[in-house]
Specification:
With 216 residues, this protein is mainly alpha-helical. Helices cover 80% and strands 0% of the residues. It is built from eight helices and no strands.
Length: 216
């Protein structure tokens, strides 16, 4: 119970952070400019040496890549009769990353940075779709690692690498000039809030599926 309350508390804080950022971006954008400027200057200090690296990294959260990875993992989960996992995974990727994020952009209508864009983007800036999608997809994988890897050290290692991967994808969007840092934090907090608030319900549904299978 304590773990459930802690998880949901952190998830709630993540959504509160998202709501706060959204409010500031919509009504008081000047407040957040110093934060955006400092982080952007730090990340862009690597320009242009790291162009190939960040152009490669960002592709792992492009819509086409997300769709391919989603379908591949969904097939693995359904083939393994992990229906609770498949349902939770689908709700996150389709519902939050695929539908909610693009729609919520229309509420804030934040224009993208005026820096040189190293990739072409046509939608609004807040929250970052790449950040939300990477947090939801690769963040879900962090939880699922335990299903496929039993060795504790290997499991933790893979989870840490996935966490670093998510952060690098967020950094790539700043480096490429298509997002403000607050867009990245907003996308991350939205995705993390979803994962942590719904994780206990996924666990409960997983238990129900296991119980039914044992009865059969």
């Amino acid at each position: 119970m304590n773990n459930k309350l802690y998880t949901q508390f952190v998830g709630s804080c993540s959504l509160v952070l998202f709501a706060f950022l959204g409010y500031v971006v919509k009504f008081y954008p000047v407040w957040i400019q110093p934060f955006d400027q400092v982080i952007t200057n730090g990340v862009r200090s690597l320009y242009p040496t790291w162009n190939p690296f960040f152009l490669w990294i960002t592709k792992f959260a492009n819509p086409s890549t997300i769709v391919v990875l989603f379908l591949a993992l969904l097939f693995v989960l359904i083939y393994g009769k992990r229906y609770a996992e498949a349902a939770w995974f689908s709700l996150g990727v389709i519902g939050i990353a695929g539908i909610f994020n693009p729609l919520i952009k229309l509420l804030f209508m934040r224009e993208r940075p005026t820096l040189e864009h190293l990739v072409t983007e046509h939608s609004y800036s807040f929250p970052s779709g790449h950040s939300t999608a990477s947090m939801v997809l690769y963040g879900t994988l962090i939880f699922f690692v335990a299903l496929f890897i039993q060795n504790t050290y290997l499991k933790r290692g893979v989870q840490v690498l996935l966490g670093i991967w998510i952060v690098l994808i967020g950094m790539s969007r700043i480096y490429l000039g298509v997002h403000f840092p607050s867009d990245i934090v907003g996308g991350f907090s939205l995705g993390l809030g979803w994962l942590l608030l719904t994780y206990p319900y996924y666990q409960k549904q997983r238990f129900v599926w296991r119980f039914k299978n044992k009865q059969l």
